Amino acid sequence: MQVVTSVGERRNTKEMEVENVFHMNKGVDHTSYAKNSLMQRTVTSKAGPIIEESAKKVYNTLRPECLMMAEMGCSSGPNALQVVSRIIDVIEETSQSINRQCPQFGVFLNDLLGNDFNTMFNLLPNFNKDLQEAKGSSCGPCFVSGIPKSFYGRVFPDKFLHFVHSSYSVHWLSQVPRGLVSENGEALNKGNIYIAKTSPPEVYNTYCAQFESDFMLFLRSRSTEMVCGGGMVVVLNGSINSDDSDSILELLGSTLQDMVLEGVIEQEKLDKFNMPFFTPTVEEVRKLVEAEGSFALNKLETFTVDWSVDTSQNLETRAKFVAKTVRAIVEPFLTTAFNHAVIDDLFLLFETRVKERIARKTGEFFTIVLSVTKKE
């Protein structure tokens, strides 16, 4: 694995593969992320009070004439712009309470090159119309731009940003961890696509090392790009325990293994396929923030969201919802490793496995919310 010694650009073949392939399902059809991201919207809504508190603190401290904010890992669909609207609301309310003119806003929507920015941009006319109708002259204009680049490295100039928000993004790694497949081609994590009950300890260690490298680079990069007193809120999928393997990706991996047994997918392809994903614990996140040293820790809180969000629905509805949510996220990865023709059958089987699982045991996404301030 390449060692990172600075915030400079870090690119290698494996990393570029992820950067070029990874994106949520595009468009607005029935399998798109735009139509299947209610779970992520629910997570962001639950984290909303901390986001608002951080944005308000930034404005009260810095009083910028134009507040520059970055939405890192914006994906496609309405979620990112709903967060932006929420931040603008709290800044306008705060400025009115202290009898100041509301600032202008520079909003930068950042994600990887393959992200469906067009779907995002098509939402902007209504976003601007709603903003104008709701705020009128009481709110400064909002200038929105798309920034297609990995946030694992520099994205903005020095001391440029006042506020950074990232939701359900930094648990995605810059690359599939090296070491999961040996030099002679032997797979270490056979039959799994992520850390699972049958994974050897080396798998967790390899994933953890990759997350530590990536998250430190993320923090160092944002530290350089943010002004002193600037705020950042990072919301990510986490784990209660370091060795907790009971994840939805383990269930997806076992579904793929079922398809191997049916002769639909080759065992070798599954053995060598691993997701670039890691769910850290609260303490792992805390230690990395403290080790990097550029940020003062304001809050580090957790909550859970049911896989299906709404547990009042029947099992069939909940299972279908979960399967569509997961498909919208991981389908682009799966189609690079396996035949595209198997995807529909895979997620029909996965839906059945989800239904069986939630019938006997609750499935929840454990979420970590990190709020920090850039130190002087």
Describe the structure concisely.
The chain has about 375 residues and is an alpha/beta fold. About 45% of the residues lie in helices and about 15% in strands.
Defining key terms:
single chain; alpha/beta; Rossmann fold; seven-stranded mixed sheet; disordered N terminus
Description:
By secondary structure, this protein is α/β, with parallel strands linked by helices. It has a single domain (13-374), classed as Rossmann fold, CATH 3.40.50. It is 44% helix and 17% strand. Strands 3-2-1-4-5-7-6 form a 7-stranded mixed sheet, with helices on both faces. Strand 4, helix 6 (201-225) and strand 5 form a beta-alpha-beta unit. Helix 2 packs parallel to helix 3. It starts with 12 loop residues before the first helix and ends with a strand. The relative contact order is 0.15.
Please trace the helix and strand order, writing H or E for each element. Answer: HHEHEHHEEHEHHHEHHE
CATH superfamily: Vaccinia Virus protein VP39
What's the CATH topology label?
A: Rossmann fold
Q: Which residues form runs of ≥5 with pLDDT under 50?
A: 1-13
Return the CATH class.
Answer: Alpha Beta
**First-residue to last-residue Cα separation:** 33 Å
Helix run count? 11
Structural class: alpha/beta
Q: Mean pLDDT, nearest integer?
A: 92
Overall body shape: globular
Helix content: 40-55%
- What share of the residues does DSSP label as strand, in percent? 15-25%
- Total strand count, please? 7
CATH architecture: 3-Layer(aba) Sandwich
Radius of gyration from the alpha-carbon trace, in angstroms: 21 Å
Strand line-up across the major sheet: 3-2-1-4-5-7-6
| Largest sheet composition | 7 strands, mixed
